[in-house]
Amino acid sequence: MKEKERDLAVALLYDGENAPRITAKGRDEVARRMLALAAQQGIPLENDPELANILSQIPLGEEIPEPLYRAIAEVIAFAYLVSGKRPPGFGAEEGAEHPG
Questions:
Q1: Where are the domains of the chain?
Q2: Residue 85: exposed, middle, or buried by beta-carbon count in 10 A (0-12, 13-18, 19+)?
Q3: What is this structure's pTM?
Q4: What is the 3-state secondary structure (H, E, C) of the chain?
């Protein structure tokens, strides 16, 4: 975005079973509103303009393509980390004792 730096936001939905999907995207004022709403809702935000630009080219409702899985996995891991949550099925096996 050399001619003029623009705000860009892309929202993803990951259900833990299917590839993440693009659920919303916007530029400029729409992007600023998306970011403000996400912050109000406590949704973790990742600031990666290059990745956002790539994701913005994927049609709404579409799954992310396989070449982006690794990058998006890092974003999802970051979101879980900052929210203090764990993905379903992640961590110790059932019945295992946790050190206290």
A1: 8-83
A2: exposed
A3: 0.76
A4: CCCCCCCEEEEEECCCCCCCEEEEEEEHHHHHHHHHHHHHCCCCCCCCHHHHHHHCCCCCCCECCHHHHHHHHHHHHHHHHHHCCCCCCCCCCCCCCCCC
Q: Do 59 and 22 meet the contact criterion of CB atoms below 8 Å apart?
A: yes
| Amino acid identity at 71 | A
CATH class of 8-83: alpha beta
Listed in sequence order, the residues at least 6 apart from 53 whose beta carbon sits closer than 8 Å to its beta carbon are: 1, 8
Per-residue pLDDT of the chain (100 residues; tens, 9 = 90+): 333 456 999 999 998 889 999 999 999 999 999 999 999 999 989 999 999 999 999 999 999 999 999 999 999 888 888 888 877 666 654 444 444 4
Confidence at residue 25, expressed as pLDDT on a 0 to 100 scale: 97
Residues facing 13 on adjacent strands? 21
- Pull the structure tokens for residue 59: 């049609």
